[in-house]
Specification:
With 533 residues, the chain is an alpha+beta fold. The chain folds into 3 domains: 6-55 and 112-226 and 269-288, no CATH class; 291-411, Alpha-Beta Plaits (2-Layer Sandwich); 416-523, Alpha-Beta Plaits (2-Layer Sandwich), CATH 3.30.70. The protein contains 17 helices and 15 strands. Strands 4, 7, 8, 9, 10, 11, 12, 13, 14 and 15 form a 10-stranded mixed sheet that branches. Strands 1-2-3 form a 3-stranded mixed sheet, with helices on one face. Helix 1 (9-17) packs across helix 7 and helix 7 packs parallel to helix 10 (250-259).
């Protein structure tokens, strides 16, 4: 095994003798060759045995020719005992020689690794890879690449620390430093092995930036038992949390390992670690596609339709909403788990949205289908429009997450145009309202309206009415066209909201005014891009 050198021999011999698998031994020997980890477990074991045997023969030759100094193996076995050499019950285990027939290195039986708990053994085999791929294929996702993630049992960090302390101790005896950061991480080694197999079986490449994630969650029945000493030594690190079955989470264990003193760790956990009683379990194999975003503009023609489901105290007030009329078609076509609806502002249940419509975006969570042609999107838009006479959508298209930011910018920075049908208690003539047309950039102070105070904080917001144009109807009715700053409460500007909006149409006309109908005529946000019919 050309990747190993003579200074690795004590590491190989120590870890093999205590039940460590060949791939974990390569990790502790800092072997960075990805191809080497992909070799079959049996071949790696034979290679390590041959490495020890060849090293032993060379050393025996040196020992015959040179009486002084003693060989490294002898120095390792008969070194001075000290505080840094604490192990198991305070003694260094006798290391079997490569030629000893009773050595663990000669045993053909596959034992569960005392460091990785079988992750780099059974779970690297073709049968497990096929099991993962069967799960992926049965989930019926569209994907052109994948990213693989793995969740490991928390006590693997404990066992790796124990193995590192044991190895560090031996290397220190030889005057060779070993930093924990030098060790190849278990997750990294596992992905080196599993990625090519998954790629071949699924027929697509592994890509760290892929939106399609295949994840495996490993668990082990002895987690609490093996981590319990950390809770005694570092109780502040382990606090009960909602939706957590155990306090021994990966992050809590890592935090405790950072705090516990080395001497305390050595007192409570064998270094190197002892052989486990059980193999890891692959608790969950999950698939998840990154969210897809669909944007467009909607018109609302009903005065009895809320933008989002109207539910009060668990009781639905109206049977549908703009959100539901659009999303039910998208959910079905994209085969998503759920969705999140957002828009550039919102209108009340009794307000229509006309003109070019209001920009909206829908985040489709974990969609199975992600590829749609422009023609397919047009058909989907038509299906939405054919399903109801209460709404219509246009410019339906796929967008990126970052592009949605342009829609949200318009909520406060852009302008909106409205048409309001207004009633007055006292009779009016055309000349009584004509002056409204001359008012420009009218500043309002709007205290949070009473009707939304239950869901919005109390505050005074400064808003602008840019322009107004009046249209006389009769002695008690006129229509007012307004261009305003986004976020202006139009109903309150008309009736005053018991003096909470100043000035208002009532105060300007010196009479009581109320609003009978309100339409949004335009939302001046240049997004999403207009599509050709």
């Amino acid at each position: 095994m050309s990747s190993l050198t003579e200074k690795d021999r004590p590491i190989v011999q120590l870890l093999l003798s205590t039940g460590t698998c060949p791939r974990c031994i390569l990790r502790f020997c800092r072997v960075g060759s990805q191809m080497l980890y992909r070799h079959p477990h049996e071949d790696l074991m034979k290679d390590l045995q041959e490495f020890l045997k060849s090293s032993q023969e060379k050393e025996d030759t040196v020992c015959l020719d040179v009486a002084d100094p003693p060989c490294k193996r002898i120095r390792l076995e008969h070194g001075e005992e000290g505080a840094d050499e604490l192990n198991y019950n305070g003694a260094i285990p006798q290391l079997p020689s490569a030629g000893d027939g009773n050595s663990a290195t000669e045993s053909p039986a596959l034992k569960v690794c005392n460091v990785c708990l079988g992750i780099l053994q059974e779970f690297c085999e073709a049968d497990f890879v096929k099991k993962v791929c069967q799960k992926v294929n049965s989930a019926d996702y569209q994907f052109t690449s994948f990213v693989f993630s793995v969740s490991l049992p928390p006590q693997l960090s404990v066992r790796e620390r124990a193995a590192w302390l044991g190895v560090k101790q031996q290397m220190r005896n030889l005057g060779l430093p070993l930093a924990k950061d030098d060790i190849i991480q278990l997750k990294e080694a596992y992905k080196w092995i599993i990625h090519p197999q998954l790629s071949e079986e699924l027929g697509v490449p592994a890509d760290g930036k892929s939106l399609f994630e295949v994840s495996v969650v490993f668990a082990h029945p002895e987690t609490d038992e093996e981590c319990h000493f950390l809770a005694t030594a570092c109780p502040d690190c382990f606090k009960p949390a909602k939706n957590k079955q155990s306090v021994f989470t990966r992050m809590a264990v890592i935090k405790a390992l950072e705090k516990i003193k080395e001497v305390d760790f050595l007192k409570h956990f064998p270094c190197p670690p002892s052989s486990p009683k059980n193999l890891c379990d692959a608790l969950e194999i999950q698939c998840n596609n990154g969210a897809i975003f669909v944007a467009g503009r909607y018109n609302k023609y009903s005065r009895n339709l809320p933008q989002t489901p109207w539910i009060i105290d668990g009781e639905r007030k109206l049977e549908s909403s703009v959100e539901e009329l659009i999303s039910e078609h998208l959910m079905a076509e994209f085969k998503a788990d759920s969705f999140n609806f957002s828009s550039s502002g919102r209108e009340d249940v009794d307000v229509r949205t006309l003109g070019n419509g209001r920009p909206f975006a829908i985040e489709l969570v974990n969609p199975r289908r992600i590829h749609f042609t422009a023609e397919e999107m047009r058909k989907l838009q038509q299906a939405i429009n054919d399903s109801s006479d209460k709404i219509q959508v246009r410019d339906l298209q796929l967008v990126t997450r970052s592009a949605i930011g342009r829609m949200k910018e318009g909520e406060e920075e852009k302008t909106k145009t409205y048409s309001a049908l207004i009633w007055t208690d006292k009779a009016i003539q055309r000349e009584d309202i004509a002056f409204l047309d001359d008012i420009k950039e009218l500043k309002l102070d709007q205290k949070t309206p009473l009707r939304v105070l239950h869901r919005r904080p109390l505050a005074v917001r400064c808003r602008l009415i840019h322009t107004m144009k009046s249209e006389y109807i009769d002695e008690h009715h006129f229509r007012l066209h307004l261009k305003t700053q986004a976020g202006t409460y139009i109903k309150e500007f008309v009736h005053g909201d018991f003096g909470r909006t100043k000035p208002n149409i009532g105060s300007l006309l010196n009479r009581t005014a109320d609003i009978l109908e309100l339409d949004v005529e335009s939302v001046d946000v240049d997004w999403p891009p207009t599509l050709a019919d």
